[in-house]
Write a structure and sequence with these properties.
Layout lengths: L3 E4 L15 E4 L3 E10 L10 E4 L3 E12 L10 E5 L4 E3 L3 E5 L5 E2 L2 E3 L16 E2 L17 E3 L2 E3 L8 E2 L1 E3 L6 E11 L7 E5 L2 E6 L3
Parallel strand pairs: 1-4, 7-12, 10-11
Antiparallel strand pairs: 1-13, 2-3, 3-5, 5-16, 6-7, 6-17, 8-9, 8-16, 10-15, 13-14, 17-18
Keywords: Signal
Organism: Seonamhaeicola aphaedonensis
Protein name: DUF3108 domain-containing protein
């Protein structure tokens, strides 16, 4: 599996993420059943293709079951994690899906065309540049909030090729999903909630 590095810088103060029983969001178009949230390794995870570099961040996973009720493709870029205390809105670093058995990583799209920087074998990165595919994450900005969009390093420290990412549309209309977020740990105790577009799916409480 290809591994990508994320560059995030912050101070390190630990906070635990609690686990909770499932809750369901349903707006007549999409059904989202929330299961649990947990801390995972910043470097090693079978269901995440990124390694996080930064002393002050913690990767967490949010597990859900998602179903399209109108039989249309689900736009995974509408999902975000919102911290209402610190006024932060996080984009996922990875999304993995499980249509039947075993998780697979959602394909990534680049926000910039790093081919122009001389990279050979651009599409072997597991990410491609398709500006015709809209990034709907930016359609749901919240006034007064800062979007946290990690920068991915697709090369080396000596010759970095940096780009923000979003996710490809997907044909599956019903699947389990793992959303991975890199949360800043030096912020005051956060109040986290999973959002789909403008709608809150569920609170994710912190001990």
């Amino acid at each position: 599996m290809k591994k990508y590095f994320i560059i995030l810088i912050a101070l390190a103060i630990h906070f635990p993420i609690a686990l909770f029983s499932q809750e369901t969001f349903n707006d007549g178009i999409i059904s989202i059943e929330y299961f649990e949230t947990e801390q995972v390794s910043n470097k090693l995870n079978l269901n995440s293709s990124t390694k996080i570099r930064g002393e002050g961040v913690q990767k967490i996973s949010v597990k859900c079951k998602i179903k399209s009720l109108n039989k249309q493709r689900i736009d995974i870029n509408k999902f975000s994690l919102v911290d209402t205390i610190n006024k932060l809105r996080y984009r996922p670093t990875d999304v993995s899906y499980q249509p039947v058995a075993g998780y697979m990583v959602y394909g990534k799209l680049l926000k910039s065309d790093i081919k122009k920087k001389g990279l050979v074998g651009h599409y072997s990165l597991g990410a491609s540049y398709k500006p015709e595919v809209k990034d709907s994450f930016l359609d749901y900005n919240i006034e007064g909030y800062t979007n946290i969009e990690p920068t991915f390093n697709f090369w080396t420290d000596k010759d970095p090729l940096l780009s923000k990412i979003y996710f490809k549309p997907h044909k599956f209309k019903k699947f389990k999903a793992l959303f991975f977020f890199a949360i800043i740990k030096d912020a005051p105790i956060p109040n986290l909630a999973l959002y789909y577009g403008d709608n809150k799916v569920t609170d994710i409480r912190v001990k």
